[in-house]
């Protein structure tokens, strides 16, 4: 069980499907600062 | 063709129709949700408007899943795929920032022109669907790409029409366009977590329950950071108390529309489901023009451009969504599902069953709890309390047209809700 949790956690942080939305989120916040 | 293959094919067609209906129903409710953002012209800060809506969204996002499936079901679903919690939170953050940007866009260029512009999110979603989830791989992709090109053309036409729009704010039109386009990028990217969750077999109701923490946390942070700190936000909420009911109502409508959109994303993918739900621009146009009289006083050219751009965008979305996924594309989807199952150790059989509209989790018979009644009663009490203190806002509306649009919206809810229940039991 602990191994499954560990391997899932590793899979999450190395998944590009996660980092792409995070980068876009940062860009969006930047635009918000400009237009507010 | 074997009996099994025939059965699978029949189920696939049925789910395509269901996904299309979900997309159309989502359009009506997402458009209705945007109407309260008109209150920004009544003197409230965009951050405050966004916070009010998201607070309403938070209440509804807890209540609707609890009413339909129960907390036991939602918790069991989350325990089975805990890795998706982070995606749901990130998606909520994206939505919150995008929603705030849309409020700025509406303030600067008006609902009827801002609305179609941020609908470029369908193009963004289509691209991510192709790139990351193996959608549009196989025959039939040409109609989808053709539709996407039409959507871009329509958006350009609307951007041109926007530049004709009179605006007294400094840099108003340009900033409004920037805000609307950025919102489109964020909303389009938000569909990455959506699709990620559904090819992992998660129920949309479970996903939105977690999603709401990301959105409420982000919008609270934005309001505190950009709108005069905590004291400023609290003072603003007190001042906006008479308008909060309308914002909560907008948030509630958004949740219903978003749920239908999630089901569309689950059953026909984001490349098809999102453009279809983005026909909300037609409904948004109807709300803006018929109810709020937004194009009154504008020249004939502005009317023609807005109308033509909208029609082109709808035609593009229609072309995309009448393009059913071919067998080769469905095989490609399957590869993406298998990839997720391998990466995160998921049960391929249960995930596939969920994607076929079945509900393997319900077979485990999760228990319903007494506190679910309290959650629903609490949500209703909050809406009643806000309604008691609500005041008519200083925004002119056409009541007969508003009634017509509301009736159409409710009919869509009942019809599509029944279809979903009969086919999938809200799986």
Give the topology, please.
The complex is a heterodimer of chains A (36) and B (427).
Chain A: H1 2-13, H2 16-35
Chain B: H1 3-34, H2 46-68, H3 71-80, H4 85-109, H5 111-118, H6 121-133, H7 141-163, H8 172-198, H9 204-226, H10 229-239, H11 241-268, H12 270-277, H13 280-291, H14 300-321, H15 327-344, H16 348-355, H17 360-363, H18 371-388, H19 399-424
Helix pairs in contact in B: 1-11, 1-12, 1-13, 1-19, 2-4, 2-9, 2-11, 2-18, 3-9, 4-5, 4-8, 4-9, 5-7, 5-8, 5-13, 6-8, 6-12, 7-14, 9-10, 11-12, 12-14, 13-19
Short description:
The complex is a heterodimer of chains A (36) and B (427). Chain A has 36 residues and is mostly helical.
> Which series of helices and strands of chain B comes N to C?
HHHHHHHHHHHHHHHHHHH
The average pLDDT value of chain B, as a whole number, equals: 82
Helical content of chain B (DSSP H or I, runs of 4+): over 70%
End-to-end distance of chain A: 47 Å
Question: What value does the average pLDDT of chain A take?
Answer: 86
Given helix and strand content, the structural type of chain A is mainly alpha
Oligomeric category? heterodimer
Number of strands of chain A: 0
Overall geometry of chain A comes to rod-shaped
Q: Per DSSP, what share of the residues of chain A sits in E-state strands of 2 or more residues?
A: under 5%
Point out poorly predicted stretches of chain B.
1-12
Shape of chain B, please? globular
- Biggest β-sheet description of chain A: none
Taking Cα atoms only, what radius of gyration of chain B do you get, to the nearest Å? 21 Å
Write up what this structure looks like.
The complex is a heterodimer of chains A (about 35) and B (about 425). Chain A is mainly alpha-helical and about 35 residues long. Chain A contains 2 helices and no strands. Chain A is rod-shaped. In chain B, α1 packs antiparallel against α11, α4 packs across α9 and α5 packs antiparallel against α13. The longest helix of chain B has about 30 residues. Chain B is mainly α and about 425 residues long. At the A-B interface, α1 and α2 of A face α4 and α8 of B.
